[in-house]
Amino acid sequence: MDEKDQTEALASKPKDDEAERQRGQMTWNQAVVVGGLAVSLPGMLFGPPLFGMVLDDYFGTAPWLTLGLLVMGFAATVYNIFLILRRVKLMN
Length: 92
Hints:
The chain is mainly alpha-helical.
């Protein structure tokens, strides 16, 4: 098989991502995005309230900074989920 035949054979095969989409499977790009979501969610949900507890203890303002940062962390988490799901949808 010469170089031209090899190039034509490669060009005629669908890419791996396209073949996986046709079979209804998740592509590697989508898997990485979803994996990133799974790693970042706990930090976005639990990090701000824990930081708020430390600040409340330091300033003596309990529970206001904890509650405020809890709401902000929840809002940021929802927004991040929206962005990631939109990105996964655009990959299709």
